[in-house]
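Two proteins follow. First one:
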Amino acid sequence: MSNTHGTARRALCAAPLALAALVALVAFQLAPAASRAQDDRAKNGDRAKDAGSVQSVAPGAPRRNSEVARMLSEIDARNVERTVRKLVSFGTRNTLSVQDNPARGIGAARDWLYSEFQQIALGAGGRMTVEKQSYTQAAQPPPRGRVPKDTVVTNVVATLRGTQAQSAARVYVVSGHYDSMCTSPTDAECDAPGANDDASGTAAVLEMARVMAKRQFDATIVFMAVAGEEQSLLGSTHFAEVAKKAGMNIEGMFTNDIVGNTTGGNGVRDRKTLRVFSEGVPSNETEEEARTRRSVGGENDSPSRQLARFIKETSDLYLKDFQVKLFYRRDRYGRGGDHIPFLERGYAAVRFTEPNEDYTHQHQNVRTENGVVYGDLPEFVDFEYVADVARVNCAALASLASAPARPKGVGINTRRLSVDTDLQWEANAEPDVAGYEIVWRDTVSPVWTNSQWVGSVLSHTAKGMSKDNYFFGVRAVDREGNRSPASYPRPVSGQPRPQPSPQRTPEH
């Protein structure tokens, strides 16, 4: 886990072939909007006379998908433990450590992870590719930087390609960082076991890949172990920059960092809670967007916040005895993770971290002082807990990659002064989209509390519900009942969009 939010300058290399092949999928053309259809408002509940008569259901109403449940049951804490202990066995994984020793240093860890992902790819039917994404980081010596000399930084990237033509270019990224550090980030010789920070997150990603690679998903999932996190988020910054320049459509990014210790420095043990950090005001917000937000709200409705809410809704559906707890801030005080470079480039991204950290086991030289053991050692990792963290990730990723994309062009008519609320959006491109749901909540509520199926339409009027009194969103639903994250509307004026042809109601 990095101690700085800064993004270091670096020399970027060309995107590797496997990544370039994935990026090429972005060039597909969206299907045109369907023609206008007859208004079926009576069927879809659009004729409610006031807010009290709107027929709504809770967002958690969707049924559990049996295949997702099977994936979660296959996640095994014994595999997590094996990965953590193997990574610890390399002695140090400092990014500045030796790269050509087969038994010690970050190069040995890199090669082992690459081999593990390759073995996983064998069971993916040709849909998974594995690559070492490398570049040379120019020296940034202390005290301003953490790279005393030019250093090769390598991400290990496994890409599971989506199988639906209209969704394959939509990408979800999940990461852990496999580098580690002692007290000094530039000490490449000391033992830096990094069991929790962040072999735990890397182990969760590897176990997810093992389980998910055997399945097919509409959208593409990238499983990634990054390096250079402790040197100021170098590996993740490189990946995000290459992706942004190539126009990659990353719809969501998860990073798992410090997800293994269930006993905090405060003495509290919590094996049933996971923190999810998400930013409100987007890091790349323009001044025009800021003016709009200040006028009508939305500081709590960024794409990252919608992603976090989706994760919690999904976890509540599949993991009844495990709680995802939302934290409405980008990260902890004075710390930063690999989601930040993605946020800075306009991608929705969140961070997973254990609920109670113990700083005697983070960024410490291994030692014992006054009876206190310091160091990030495997005996302080709860492997069953890491497996539950992997299940939270897996459930959300599988649901996202199986569902339609979140609706685009979502707008709310702010010109018409009315006790009703007029919403509109663009048609999704996926052929299996059945229609759309409207979600809403009171302005003081942190999560969506109500939803209404409105059908295969591109606009909806919420009767008797003033836009001044609620926050609204729109999500797409396919014929199997898979739901996208919600999209928050922006102010628009003009006529409602033409309506598409009727579609079959999704299974609930």
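Second one, unrelated to the first:
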Amino acid sequence: MTEIASARPRAIFPALQKLYVPFDTLAETLLRLTAGLLLITHGYGKIINPFGAVGMVEGLGFYPGVFWSPLLAATEFFGGILVAIGLFTRPAAFAAMIVLLVTVYFHGIAQAEGLGGAEKSILWAAIFLFFAIRGSNSQSVDAKLGKQI
């Protein structure tokens, strides 16, 4: 039995344990890959026009916008790449989580959309918090290099 499987409580349906264990790493890898690829997609427009969000970031109180707008673009686009491939996963996920927490504030409070407007950002922030704490798994560049930051 693997170390991961032995550290887990017994399954309610023990017959399904044979299914859970082999797919454990795959499910985590798919979550990391999906979150990273979606963040890349979200940041693509910003990386093409890195100063396009100057007004938005200044509207949130982040001055000067000419500094924060390209930083936002780089965090989303390049951070998404790093999370997707699992390289420097913890710092990239932490930076993405901070960006998502700002969007929680933006949608939930500044735009007065409440939970309905912020729920997607809350979910994204929670996913990136998971990877900021957990890091990547054996299916990552970090693991292939034998390093975890």
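SUMMARY FIELD: Residues 40-144 form one domain. The chain has one domain: 40-144.
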